[in-house]
Amino acid sequence: MKRFVTPISAVIIGLAVGAGVIYVMGLDPAEAYRSLLKGALGSKNGLAETVVKATPLIFTGLSFAVARMAGLLNIGAEGQLYVGGLTGIAVGIYLQGLPLAVHLPLALLAGFVGGGLWGLIAGALKVRFGASEIITTVMLNYVAIYLVSLMVTGPMIEPPGNFPQSPPVLDSARLPVVVSGTRLHLGFVVALLMVVFYYVFLWHTTVGYEARVSGHNPRAAGYAGMNAVRNTLFVMFLAGGMGGLAGASELLGVQHRLFQNFSPGYGFDGIAVALLGYNSPIGIILASLLFGGLRSGGNMMQMTAGVPVAIVYVIQAVVIIFVACEELFRRWQKNKVGPKFNLRSLLSAQPREVKKSHD
Q1: % of the chain surpassing 70 pLDDT
Q2: What is the pLDDT of residues 275-323, one digit of tens each?
Q3: Confidence (pLDDT) at 8
Q4: HEC profile for 224-287?
Q5: Contact 357, 215 (CB under 8 A)
Q6: Predicted pLDDT at 351
Q7: What is the DSSP letter of 131?
Q8: Taking the CA of residue 230 as centre, how many other CA atoms within 13 Å lie in the half-sphere pointing to its CB?
Q9: 121-178 pLDDT, tens per residue?
Q10: What is the pTM of this model?
Q11: H or E element at residue 184
Q12: 173 neighbors 257 (Cβ within 8 angstroms)
């Protein structure tokens, strides 16, 4: 239960700060939050939109979390999302004559591989030249965004070329709607399967165990004969693939064609999702649904209560700051007490024990 105290407190403080800002604007916070809740959960369509907006956040949250659990900081989920969307939509448009059972999985796989290769670039730069993955992933975000802009204004532009967008994806590569009358698509189910994969990989496989040990203490992992280079490359590919699935699912399930700037910042919000959820599978799902609800309810709040949707980002920012400060405080306390390192106990620890020490 202690793990839930900080996230719940962060959300409460964020809502309180948002209410204060709304009040200073001369508007009614109670009416604003009623509208937000109604827009997010008050109808079948509202609930479906919450899940739709949470779906890419689950993927990008996993993208950050899988790297973080291995001691890496992947700030490039936004770029990986764009590249995954580009490769996924390309397969969905230009690979023709296939049934849905073949075409759709291929399009999703292309999104995963595209994002994975984009993440692998940062991993390769780290192991070859010692380049910080924080810097390289941030820089690659901009490269990916401009690459998509280039493609939709040039090689992939829809004839006759009046708008910077690609042709629509073929029906055989679209993610089916799972709730009639809404936009809720099969991508949410894929996201949940990736959460299960994330849990099994990190806590029930040898490679995942080595990745977590390497993240906990690279020196101890080296003494144990673990291949840090292989782990870094594989984890960055996997993290990039999760980000790529975010872009592919958004385009194949919601937008159905490639646009410039098609992401409203899902990659960056995924960092907040992972932090709020403490990189745990259930935490990432709950945090994604929270942020998805804020996004879907924010539109209703603006229409009925006259509160700008930017208040949603104020709430998100306060939540992130609170969680980040709590993490910094825990690290300060740990450093103040002094690290207690025992090589023998670490190498003989079971995966569950390493998880506790990492947390």
Answers
A1: 92
A2: 899 899 999 999 999 999 999 999 889 988 899 988 998 998 898 888 8
A3: 87
A4: CCCCHHHHHHHHHHHHHHHHHHHHHHHHHHHHCCCECCCCCCHHHHHHHHHHHCCCCHHHHHHH
A5: no
A6: 46
A7: -
A8: 9
A9: 999 999 999 999 999 999 999 999 999 999 999 999 999 888 999 999 999 999 999 9
A10: 0.89
A11: none
A12: no
How many distinct structural domains can be found in the chain?
A: 1
Distance of CA 106 to the CA centre of its chain: 21
Q: What is the CATH number of the domain that holds 98?
A: 1.10.3470
Q: Which residue has the tokens 């390289």?
A: 136
Cα–Cα dist 17/40, whole Å: 20
Report the C-alpha gap between 308 and 312 in whole angstroms.
8
Low pLDDT (below 70) residues in the chain? 1-3, 334, 336-359
Q: How far apart are CA 306 and CA 26, in angstroms?
A: 11
Of 136, 146, 134, the residue nearest 82 (C-alpha): 146
Which H or E run contains 332?
helix 310-337
Q: What is the pLDDT of residue 218?
A: 72
Q: Report which DSSP code applies to 175.
A: P
User: In angstroms, what is the C-alpha Rg of the chain?
Assistant: 21
Q: Are 154 and 141 in contact (CB under 8 A)?
A: no
Instruction: Report angle CA 171, 176, 182 to the nearest 5 degrees.
Output: 115
The residue range of the domain holding 140 is 2-358
Question: Residue 280: which of 193, 195, 191, 216 has the closest Cα?
Answer: 195
Residue 184: what residue type? Answer: L
Q: How many residues belong to the chain? A: 359
- What does the alpha-carbon distance between residue 175 and residue 345 come to, in Å, rounded to a whole number? 48
User: How far, in Å, are 66, 270, 279, 286, 306 from residue 319 at the CA level?
Assistant: 21, 13, 15, 14, 23
The three-state secondary structure class of 177 is strand
Distance CA 55, CA 189 (A): 9
Query: What is residue 345's predicted lDDT score, i.e. its pLDDT?
Result: 47
312, two tokens: 């949603």
Instruction: Tell me the torsion sign for CA atoms 1, 334, 137, 236.
Output: negative
What are residue 259's DSSP bridge partners?
165
